[in-house]
From TrEMBL:
Gene3D superfamilies documented for this protein: Hypothetical Protein Pfu-838710-001
Protein name stated in the entry: CYTH domain-containing protein
InterPro entries named in the record: CYTH-like_dom_sf, CYTH_domain, NeuTTM/CthTTM-like
Catalytic machinery residues: Y30
Amino acid sequence: MAKEIERKFLVSGKRWRLSADAGVSIKQGYLATMDDRSLRVRAYSDGRACLTLKIGQTALSRDEYEFEIDPAVAEEMLGQAIGTVIEKVRHEVEHKGFTWEVDVYGGRYSGLVVAEVELRDETDKPEIPDWVGREVTGDYRYSNQAMALSEGALRSSHEPQSQSG
């Protein structure tokens, strides 16, 4: 079992692109959800696909079980997803010993840009890049699950990425 420990932030501006990789497109959908767990399927533009079970209610840390699956099976499962299939491009940005994942959302969440940093343990204190804005760790509205199930009402209230810097 792996432990997912991460912090999530809104992104301010476009400076992150200066050191980002080319990115990979992701389609993800939820097959089952409960208060403290979710079963998610993802298909990546590079041909990978995975099925992930996440368990836990804390904002910072959850148990995570991830399994590689056949991409054709993933596409079939996405057709059975609950709610909206989330579409985003994920970029990786290295900053002071940590890898930041910057998700640029498309579709109904176009304009939303979120950065996550995975921690080794809950006491890690990564240096926050200057392109990172407000922290939204624990704000359910910014979870992919809430967006897929339209429970977060971000369609009209998310803070779009600033066009400056």
